[in-house]
Amino acid sequence: MATSPATILRNPRQWLGQLPLAFAVAVVAYAIIDGGYIVTVVGFALIYAVFVAGLNIFMGYAGQTSFGQNAFAAIGGYASAVLTATYGWPPLAGIVAGMAGAVVCALLIGMPTLRLKGHYLAMGTLAIGLIVYEIAVEWQSVTNGYMGISGIPPLGIGSWELESDRAQLIFLAIVTALSLWATWRLRQSRFGRALVALSGSEDAARALGINVGRTKLIAFVISAMFASLAGSLLVHIVGFISPEMIGMNMVILAFTMLYVGGIGTTTGPLIGAVVIGLLPEVFRGLKDYQDLVYGTALILILIYAPGGIASLGRLAPKRRAAR
Amino acid sequence: MLDPVFLAQTILNGLSVGCIYGLIGIGFCVIYNASGIVNFAQGAFVMMGGMITHVLMQQHLPLIPSALLAIIVVALAGVVIERIVVRPLWDRKATMFVMILATLAAQIVIERLTLMLVGDQPKSIAVFTDLPPIKLAGVAIGYQTLWIMGTSLVLIAALGLFFQKTLVGRAMRACAINREAAALQGIVVSRMLAMSFALSAALGAIAGILVTPTQFTAFNVGTPFAISGFIAAIVGGFGRPFGAFLGGLLLGLAQALAVFGLGSGLKNMAALSVLLIFLFLRPSGILGSAK
Fold first, then answer.
1. CA Rg value for chain B
2. Which CATH architecture best describes the domain A5-322?
3. Does position A1 have pLDDT exceeding 50, yes or no?
4. Would you say residue B40 lies in a domain?
5. Hey, of A299, A301, A304, which one would you mutate to test binding to chain B, going by the most B CBs within 10 A of its CB?
6. From the list B94, B111, B268, which residue is nearest A130 (CB)?
7. Number of folded domains in chain B?
């Protein structure tokens, strides 16, 4: 299920599987060198890669379900927006405050919610995502409702701001690389093995001495931190936040990226985010049919390639052998 | 401050929309019982029911044939979704989550196709009986409310007969209790799956047709209805069709009272809170889970 770069490199036949990653990295590099319009597109994709990487820990590694990750992106996004735009905090402090808030909320939400299983868990998390959306709309005095909050400063430390698009993109690329590296380290750790164990069978994991409840909760909190970070980055790059940015469509888009890239793989989130992020740019006429194409693509991938692009190279030789 | 007539009116309206939630909730249960699948495209059926009826009536077709035609078309659409989305995943033994995601994606596809075909303007259909509401001790009872409640009760009775007396209905119940054992009795479980999608889509369509005159319909009304229907099903004890109807009434009531007491901005929040309360405190619902 999970593939580390190390095991892939040991088997030359699986090098093919690294092609999508090479493509994604090449796109990011091209955007950094080229500058221009593509920077916006790739920057957006990288932010989503961070979000999806967090989702991947909870869903790919631990095999759980969360339809409500947008709640934590909202917490990060609104914390950053309100603290920097309204109270004049430095961006970094806003991001940290948002992540701290997300951790507290994830603990409080996770404790009752993660006891649920199957479609109950799906629905419970979906409800949480929708409730946070409703709060963002209704809590006018803080969130400014549908109008949203604008005038959010760009990222920076002290007086030094990441003003140019290119500098921002390089920063996002570093954050994304660190995020993916962190998820990979996490997967390799004792904790990561515990997650994969409980995704296979909770009873078996419990028999091995894994505290299933606590392990799931920690995974949920970690993925909430990633979501919060992504939310903060998003509002700083765009300079604006409104409830629509953190609604249900964020979750659906993230799921599509996760499945296209390959759920449970380390590099899948980046690949999925770049491929899905580029789609509407490559096919210009597609813009009007964007959601239609995403939906159809998602169905086809779920049916015919449940492992996503990252797994295609791995699947190809196996299939040939099977025939 | 507290106006009893207004309160009674609120309760009546809550129960009326609760019937709609209940019918959608039953749709969830019918599919879940036959297959263990939670079909998140349920809301699309509701939207299609109202929308197709609207489009047909635009072509100067009278209400009854339009509605019947819409129900048939939506039931067929249910079978199509079952064939091209659910069945391939079912055959590949996809996980519960993948199934939810795929049906959700199917809902999005239907929504977007509808948007392309009819545009984003809200549409409505005329009330079935265009007479002034009946006044009962100051409470206005609209004919559409009577239509909704009457049709719902007739449908409940018909469903009861269907599940008790007919071979197909009893086969569906057998699948709900134990699919393997049902298969060993010669019941073609996969055919039950297709039939349950048709039945549940038809129920959704009827709910959509009934509710459209009181509100409006647009390409994106499906999701809120699906969520309400799902909450109704959870409150009733998932997999219990009549529990789901009861759950729908309860949800409609809770929502109406929340709007009455706290303002209309909290309508969705009230529904979601009902869901979370039941999930956390009594996930098996008021009647207890079917399994």
1. 19
2. Orthogonal Bundle (1.10)
3. no
4. yes
5. A299
6. B268
7. 1
